[in-house]
């Protein structure tokens, strides 16, 4: 929430201050804020001395304008800034100072608005900035279009600043639309103008000659100075990258102008980035279906958890944040899915001696070391607390496939020398082989002190002691929320979120040599689209990446298949027509069943800004046989 509102205010301030700076040689300029609400814009600008020759006009419904006028008159600090004339205001002008006019008019009544602005002294011959911050979308498109066109036609030197929602059709967009529908305030713009390109076309068609638009991920990356980005990122404990980036990909800032010399272009970025709204080419699609289940279970609605195949057709899911006993909380219970006679059965696992050691963790890893033993590494409770250490999970070697509730798991805490290595989360733990011995390769992640880690440890699988094994080759940049898979005795690392909270598109293979390991870059073509918060599996020389978050706002990641022999990288969309709910593929877990070529997606989703929380309600099955058959 804090970052989401910060970036909105930052973008609007950036554009307004740029307008004031570029027009300071003009004797007079004016700002017209449409649907201004209780915005304190005028008072902020006045207080820092930026309104030497600018008059600010604000328009909103009469009831809002009257309330605001009363508030200003009541507060001596505000009255002093505006220089209250003291007289009673008449008609639509609810407050009038020398350089501030507050008008009570319905924006959708254009002739009334024009008459009121003329009465208040608006001059259509001087540089004018129109501001519409999440306003026009609440009006019918014919009326908002007319307003945009009127501004272009009636003002000789005009600039327009628009901040609004977009991308209604992806999973986050569905949750966003549903929220506004429930409030009975439909977002009208979305159907006709769903993305940046459509909004840009709209302004050109309505008479504007210059128009730039970018989503808020691009604005933060390209138009926010690096030191300011770092200041914001360090303000408070933060671990909601997926939610923040998804929120930013569903809002845009647009600036348009006409008749301005020189032209007004506040969104010219100081970086060259690939245009993020360009369409991702898809090689085909994979159909998602709700898992054939014998029993309903709410415990699999969660995110930040981990799922692992502990024996054939038995999947154990631990940790995360989700729904338990009718409330949202960090998950205490373990859950199991067992496939029996073609159906999955879900059950809650009995924990022996649970104690406090489990500590209800998120973003941990679970590695199966035998058919009765798994190792939990790291994870966190709160992002401001230190990471959690390691824990053994012991389970019976055989289990009754027809009764998931029959499975017991024993928690055994351990205090090995390797404990400091485990105090991290959003990392990976992968099995590697060196000189015939089994090791766990612990890589990357983040901690309470370090927002991103690039170090690694080799844990001897039996003794859990850290072993020094030489590693050569180009070291991958630090990352968390990446994927890691065992392959040919080594590890494949793909994607992740890097140092500046930027998604990475690199793929590395850590391969075994005679005396140690070597990092090798895996070249992909076309280049892998940078992403993080995905899951990954290797099958038959192909690396499968599942879901995640990327900055291409035109679509959401589906399944990406990388041929590890040729480097060919193909993206497939996921067809969700058989699901009755949005499928959010971030912070999920997935298990690949190689014999059936079936991918099971468990959990996933999260908070959707102020629009509510969406957690995928049921496990989903994806059949990958059509995209994994040898060509």
From TrEMBL:
It catalyses: 7-[(3S)-(3-amino-3-methoxycarbonyl)propyl]wyosine(37) in tRNA(Phe) + S-adenosyl-L-methionine + CO2 = wybutosine(37) in tRNA(Phe) + S-adenosyl-L-homocysteine + 2 H(+); 7-[(3S)-3-amino-3-carboxypropyl]wyosine(37) in tRNA(Phe) + S-adenosyl-L-methionine = 7-[(3S)-(3-amino-3-methoxycarbonyl)propyl]wyosine(37) in tRNA(Phe) + S-adenosyl-L-homocysteine. Gene3D superfamilies: Kelch-type beta propeller, Vaccinia Virus protein VP39. One of its GO terms (molecular function) is tRNA methyltransferase activity. GO terms for biological process: tRNA methylation; wybutosine biosynthetic process. Its EC number is 2.1.1.290, 2.3.1.231. Pfam families: Kelch_KLHDC2_KLHL20_DRC7, LCM. Belongs to the methyltransferase superfamily. LCMT family. This is tRNA wybutosine-synthesizing protein 4. It comes from Spizaetus tyrannus.
